[in-house]
Structure formats: C-alpha cells, structure tokens
C-alpha cells in the first residue's frame, strides 16, 4: 500500500444525514478488456434501446435510457453497489467530510408518523430560528411530511446554500402550529460526544465515522481525563453508528490497542484489495501530518472498556468492535450488529458521476468475516429492561436481497436469538417504543454497561432472563 494511505476509505450503511458506505476513491482504470465484450448480449441491449426509442408510448431521452441501464446493471450485483449521479456523488463526498448543506437538525421518526426533532445542531440555521428538541415537523413548504421515510425527509431538507424553506412545526403546549422560515447553509456535524456519567466512569459516543472523527475523539478523551485523571472505566457507544470513513475506524481502534496492532484486513480480486491495515498514523490520519493519538494519556490503553452495539451498528463500527473483541481489549454489550463487511470502491466516470462497486470483504484481526453475520456481543443486553424495543425491528445485512455471502462461516447457523426474532419483532411493535435517547438517564443498556464495569449484576437479553454478576468489566 505504500507509506501513505492515499485514498479516503469509507465503510458503512445507508444515508443518515450524510453518508455511510464502505469506499475508496480512485479513477477508473483504462485497461484492455479481459474477457472481451459479449457481443451477442450487447446487440440485444442495442435492439431493446432501439425498440424503446421507436415504439414506446412517448419519447424518451437517450441519456435517461443509458443512465438507467448502467444503474440497473450495477444495482443488480448486491445491495451496496450503485451508480452515483451528480447529486448522489456530491452528497457522498460532503458527508464523508462531516458537512452538508441543510437546516442543521438531528431527526427521528415519531410514533405517530411525523418527523421528530431530536436536537438542533448548535449555531445552525434551525438552532438560531428557535427549533427545539421534541418539535414535530408536519410540513416542509407545501409538502406534508407525515408518513414520509427518513431518507426522503432528509433529501427534502437538503438543498443549495442560501435557499429558503418554511417548516411547519407542532410543539407540545402550543395550541396552533408554528412556522419557521429558515435559510439553508453549510452545516458541520460533530460525530463525537462524551461525558462523565458518574465519578470514575466515562461515556464516549461516536455516531458516524467522518474525516475529523479521530481528531475529535482524541480531543474528547483528553477532556474527559482532564475532568477525571483516574478513570476506572470507559464505555464506547457505537449503537446506530452506520459507519463512515475507514481511517476513522482504524484510528478509534488504535487509540485503545497496543501500538502498530493490525486492525482490519481486506480481500478481493485486485491486488490492492488484499491488505492489512495497522494502527499507525499513516493508516488513520487524513487531516494533517501530526498524529492525533500521540498526546493521549497512557492510561487510555489499559482502562477497562465496554463497547455498546446494536443492530444499527454497521461496517466501520463493526470493524472497531471486532478488533477490540479479538484482542480482548473490551467486552461487547448489546445485540448482534448489522453485518456489513464489504468494501465498496468509488470509480469516477465523469467529473461529477461515479460507480460504487463492491470490491472486497473485511476481516477482523483474527480473520473473522463480518459480512452477513456481524459481531456477536459478549454479553447480550436488550435496549430496555422488558425487551429490545425498536432494535428488534431493524433489518440486517443478511435480510437484504442479493447480499454478499460470508466466505468463512455458514450463514445457515442460526443463533437462539435469530430463532426468536419474529417474537421479538411482535413485542416491539406492540409496545410502540419511542426512539432511545443515548446517554440519558433512561438508557438501560448504558446502565448495564456501567454495572458490568463495576462487577455488579447485569440483566441479560430477554431470551435469557437470568441476571448475572460479572467479576470484572475486562476479560482476561
């Protein structure tokens, strides 16, 4: 790979107010085709193209037909390969940098179908306009948002810098809907936050792996140790972290592991997809030449740790959890992770379009494949004391059509938890849980992680109703 990691890698899932896919950017190689093009099939494609142009009920642009043909060809491979048009490619690039053009709000789906404000981002247009946590967005301009998917809602809130939008908001205690005229601008997201949850114990949350994540994490850890130099335990929260920049995942894992430890490996057809990534600055530094981890307190390498994960923890977050689990550096608490263990490479087609193509699989330091399996927690703990809540409703990689297989373990081996999944889903639907506020006083899994670190009883997942006592928060 050389002494410097030249391309920016991304790993993750879906679109969450930005991006989350596993990527490496590179120009499309110009090389002889081997094997040669299948001429007979290409003739059929040309015949269909000609047939549509001559016989379809109304005229269709050539560009539309060819673009859709490319899109369909790539999308037929697996759930994460895709053709990126101008808009999608721009969103991908800006999301990896932790910035986007929009209103500056974190949103969730409310129980009655509205888009709910989780929190406005500090000093964003929404924050300055007076949007508050708990507000429900009923309309965006003249478009009702009730029942609209999260992804579609996010796309409608995005736009060009300085463009205006009117939000109609329902607020508890207000008799009439409120309207806010907001001007979109470039928003800078913070993917890292943390606090002392009680004396001696810190909570560090990473919501997405972006280019600034390693620097932001190092700064937050230094701040936590300044508040309490004698930390007895650290909880790394990766729940609902869909992934992001690969270098971010390597740097986060490297912060807690011995120097130069192998963090993750990849394997694919191309030689440059057969790599091992180590916990060294050249593998995780993107923003400058200095090592963000160099000034971390030495104690961070040995502080007892728990990593919180759930079904929404995907790709880059699975890389971190898998590495810390393989080295027995931390105990993993929560539920089986998503299982996205594939690498997507971005091949640029034109100045503003590209193809995102799956080119390799990821493996933990011990050679475990993450793909379509995920990371199994050391201690299974539900989201709530009486069940797994909304987490039980989430889709995993193995549920997706045409998902890439796991090349090292049989997918047919179902766990006891898998066998109970339909029952768990039914319970979650019946309870109609609100989205969990991570790090709050009501965060059941966080409290169980604290108990684990202290050697106190931990309430396990519902399928095993026993309450266990752990001797220590760190496996020996």
UniProtKB/TrEMBL annotation:
Using the UniProt annotation, give all residue ranges assigned to the region (Disordered).
397-419
The entry's keywords: Hydrolase, Protease, Serine protease
**Has the keyword Protease been applied to this entry?**
yes
Source taxon at top rank: Bacteria
Q: Name one GO cellular component term.
A: outer membrane-bounded periplasmic space
Q: Which CDD domains match?
A: cpPDZ_CPP-like, Peptidase_S41_CPP
Keyword Protease on entry: yes
UniProt GO molecular function: endopeptidase activity; serine-type peptidase activity
Please give a single GO biological process term from the UniProt record.
signal transduction
Q: Which InterPro entries match?
A: ClpP/crotonase-like_dom_sf, CtpA/B_N, PDZ, PDZ_6, PDZ_sf, Peptidase_S41A, Tail-specific_protease
Domain (PDZ) ranges: 89-172
> Which Pfam families does the record associate with it?
CtpB_N-like, PDZ_6, Peptidase_S41
Database matches in Gene3D superfamilies: 2-enoyl-CoA Hydratase, Chain A, domain 1, 2.30.42.10, 3.30.750.44
Q: Which NCBIfam families match?
A: prc
User: PANTHER family, alphabetically?
Assistant: CARBOXY-TERMINAL PROCESSING PROTEASE CTPA, TAIL-SPECIFIC PROTEASE
Name the protein family.
Answer: Belongs to the peptidase S41A family.
**What name does the UniProt record give this protein?**
S41 family peptidase
Its organism's taxonomic lineage begins at: Bacteria, Pseudomonadati, Pseudomonadota, Betaproteobacteria, Burkholderiales
């Amino acid at each position: 790979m050389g002494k410097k990691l030249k391309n920016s890698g991304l790993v993750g899932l879906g679109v969450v107010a930005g991006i989350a896919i596993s990527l490496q950017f590179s120009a499309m190689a110009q090389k002889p085709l081997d094997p040669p093009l299948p001429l007979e099939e290409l003739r059929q494609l040309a015949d269909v193209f000609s047939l549509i142009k001559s016989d379809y009920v109304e005229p269709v642009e050539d560009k539309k037909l060819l673009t859709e043909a490319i899109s369909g060809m790539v999308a037929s491979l697996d759930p994460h390969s895709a053709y990126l048009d101008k808009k999608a490619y721009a969103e991908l690039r800006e999301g990896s940098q932790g910035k986007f053009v929009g209103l500056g709000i974190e949103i969730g789906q409310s129980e009655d179908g509205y888009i709910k404000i989780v929190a406005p981002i500090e000093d964003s247009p929404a924050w300055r306009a007076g949007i508050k946590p708990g507000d429900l967005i009923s309309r965006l301009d003249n478009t009702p948002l009730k029942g609209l998917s999260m992804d579609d809602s996010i796309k409608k809130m995005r736009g060009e810098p300085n463009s205006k939008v009117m939000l109609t908001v329902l607020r508890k205690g207000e008799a009439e809907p409120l309207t806010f005229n907001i001007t979109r601008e470039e928003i800078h997201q913070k993917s890292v936050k943390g606090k002392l949850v009680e004396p001696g114990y810190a909570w560090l949350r990473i919501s997405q792996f972006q280019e600034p994540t390693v620097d932001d994490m190092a700064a937050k850890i230094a701040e936590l140790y300044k508040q309490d130099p004698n930390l007895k335990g650290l909880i790394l929260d990766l729940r609902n972290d869909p992934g992001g920049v690969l270098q971010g995942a390597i740097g986060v894992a490297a912060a807690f592991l011995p120097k130069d430890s192998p963090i993750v490996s990849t394997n694919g057809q191309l030689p440059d997809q057969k790599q091992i990534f180590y916990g060294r600055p050249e593998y995780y530094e993107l923003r400058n030449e200095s090592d963000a981890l160099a000034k971390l307190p030495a104690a961070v390498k040995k502080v007892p740790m728990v990593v919180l994960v759930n079904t929404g923890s995907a790709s880059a977050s699975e890389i971190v959890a898998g590495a810390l689990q393989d080295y027995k550096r931390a105990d993993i608490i929560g539920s089986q992770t998503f299982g996205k263990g594939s690498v997507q490479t971005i091949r640029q087609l034109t100045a503003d379009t590209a193809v995102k193509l799956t080119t390799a699989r990821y493996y933990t330091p011990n050679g475990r494949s993450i793909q379509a399996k995920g990371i199994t927690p050391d201690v299974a703990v539900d989201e709530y004391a009486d069940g797994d809540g909304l987490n039980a409703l989430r889709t995993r990689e193995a549920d997706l059509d045409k998902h890439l297989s796991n090349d090292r373990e049989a997918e047919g081996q179902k766990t006891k938890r898998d066998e109970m999944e339909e029952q768990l889903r039914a319970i979650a639907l019946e309870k109609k849980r609100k989205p969990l506020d991570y790090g709050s006083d009501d965060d059941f899994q966080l409290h169980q992680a604290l108990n684990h670190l202290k050697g106190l009883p931990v309430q396990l997942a519902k399928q095993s109703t026993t309450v266990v006592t752990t001797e220590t928060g760190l496996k020996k």
